[in-house]
């Protein structure tokens, strides 16, 4: 007999069984975009839509979000994006993923220059890739429970204009064991 716990833990009677860990999928309507209220820079979806946000042109890319996470666990953060065929200004620019946990500590990772997959034009892809995951360890807090995780996608240091990027959604996925993460005090 196989017994499963809803928390995502794995229990079995000798057979191998994997359980999908919880995934928080955050659509653009629930993200914040610097300059997002200016239609010259961004085309945002309706609040009732799961559609992408389209970056028309900015020199300061800052897309942020929050979600509830459990203390003592680790999470992988990704953004699913599309580089449109007319995308410009991305050559050689690194992006940064940054997360802030409830204790005020920051974790960050540089993503090398954007390169869309070769499977087709206007296809969405995840950043970072599965080979270079951005994992955030949520420290234990006073008492058990959920805490707010702040995260974002940034390119604010080059001062170069860029455009043609679609933000399709962000994901925050619980993992059973963390990859190496960089924590800045």
In short:
With 185 residues, this protein is mainly β.
Protein architecture, described:
It is a single chain. By secondary structure, the protein is mainly beta. The chain has a single domain (23-184), classed as Jelly Rolls, CATH 2.60.120. The chain has no helices and 13 strands. The strands form two sheets. Strands 1, 3, 4, 6, 9, 10 and 12 form a seven-stranded antiparallel beta sheet that branches. The chain has a six-stranded antiparallel beta sheet with strand order 2-5-11-7-8-13, with no helix packed on it. A hairpin with a 5-residue loop joins strand 7 and strand 8 (106-111). The N and C termini lie far apart (47 Å).
Keywords:
Jelly Rolls; 185 residues; mainly beta; disordered N terminus; disordered C terminus
Question: How much of the sequence is in beta strands?
Answer: 35-45%
Report, as a whole number of angstroms, the end-to-end distance.
Answer: 47 Å
The chain-level structural class is mainly beta
The helicity comes to: under 10%
CATH architecture annotation? Sandwich
CATH superfamily: Galactose-binding domain-like
**β-strand number:** 13
- What string, H for helix and E for strand, traces the elements in order? EEEEEEEEEEEEE
| Rg (CA only) | 18 Å
Q: What's the tally of helices?
A: 0
How many domains comprise the coordinates? 1
Name of the CATH class: Mainly Beta
Unreliable stretches: 1-19, 178-185
Query: Looking at CATH, which topology would you report?
Result: Jelly Rolls
Largest sheet: 7 strands, antiparallel
Mean pLDDT: 82
What global shape is seen?
globular
